[in-house]
Design brief:
Layout (H helix, E strand, L loop, with lengths): L14 E4 L32 E4 L3 E4 L7 E4 L2 H22 L7 H11 L20 H14 L37
Amino acid sequence: ETLPGDVNAKNILTVGAVSGILAGYAKKEDVVMNSFSCWGPTDDGRIKPDIVTDGQAVYSAMGTNDSSYAYLSGTSMAAPGATGSLILLQELSQRLKPNKFIKSATIKALAIHTANEAGSNPGPDYKYGWGVLNISEAAAVLSNALTSRNSTTSVDLIYDTTLSNGQTHTYYVIASGAKQLKASI
């Protein structure tokens, strides 16, 4: 399956659907792609989907009446779950640093930066993207960066800036050795 051309715009977050992991994520082999979920690459070679999340037998509202619910499957179930989870990062940002909304690009970077590895091959791929959404880890990274104000002792750093054409920013990072050094731009 490949993604149709009209749904793989450059700056969107594309969500693929995998089966739920009842026992919780332990290893990349726990993640099972659903047959109905599409994947990349895009025509220009970009990784899509960006992340994957549960889209199999999700208990959801139905349009039949105001109290109808059913178990539904599809990327139409995975994407709203990811969206609801990711908007909570904006709420967390407001609690920790009022009146400072983080950019959508920063939320996307947090999602792919903190995703759990999925599939048989290491790193991002055209089937699972950067992996399974891990909103707990994304919230921890955001919290660490905001509460420490990106201090030199912070375990996590987030720079939510805009780069103009021809402009550069240089950041110096010293790896603590406490966890793997990762950078997402």
